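Hi support team,

I've been running sequence recovery on a batch of backbones for a student project. Most finish fine, but this one hangs at about 90% for roughly twenty minutes before it completes. I'm not sure whether the input is malformed or the queue is just slow. I've pasted the structure tokens below so you can try to reproduce it. Let me know if you need the job ID as well.

Thanks,
M.K.
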């Protein structure tokens, strides 16, 4: 089961993504900052959260891609299919939701550090990610547009 899970989330690709982010931080960004007399204000823990968020979003994307491409993959590459054969389709969807939700939470943690968290947008996006959307928040279409305008206004006025 673990082997199939790692195949589903494409663990090799996730390792490359994380390694690339850490190499950029320590081999490119830090030397440039130090050569100009600056120091990173982004802690190691916050950088870890950034990498974790990227990894979770990529893993969620790989899982949902395999979920929707199962029929095509059964025809073109039947030996590579994991969804439905080794991992239940419902479990794949659940993993996708969990990964996206945890990524959203880590994003809020990061955004709060720079003061760019807007609760209305966050709740709408979070609930959309788990399939509840407007039903849970009871939001009308014009309210969503207003929230988007306010969100964009706050993004640029806050600087």
């Amino acid at each position: 089961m673990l082997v199939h899970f790692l195949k589903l989330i494409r663990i090799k690709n996730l390792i490359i993504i994380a390694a690339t982010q850490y190499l950029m931080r320590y081999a490119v960004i830090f030397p440039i900052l130090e050569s100009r007399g600056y120091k990173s204000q982004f802690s190691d823990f916050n950088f870890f959260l950034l990498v974790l968020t990227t990894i979770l979003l990529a893993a969620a994307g790989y899982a949902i891609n395999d979920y929707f491409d199962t029929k095509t993959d059964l025809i073109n590459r039947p030996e590579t299919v994991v969804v439905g054969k080794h991992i239940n389709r419902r479990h794949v969807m659940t993993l996708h939701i969990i990964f996206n939700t945890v990524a959203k939470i880590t994003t809020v943690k990061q955004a709060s550090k720079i003061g760019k968290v807007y609760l209305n947008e966050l709740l709408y996006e979070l609930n959309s990610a788990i399939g509840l959307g407007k039903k849970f928040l009871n939001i009308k279409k014009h309210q969503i547009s207003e929230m988007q305008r306010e969100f964009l206004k706050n993004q640029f006025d806050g600087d």
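--
Follow-up from support: It reproduced on our side and the slowdown came from queue contention, not your input. DSSP finds eight helices and no strands in the chain. No action needed from you.
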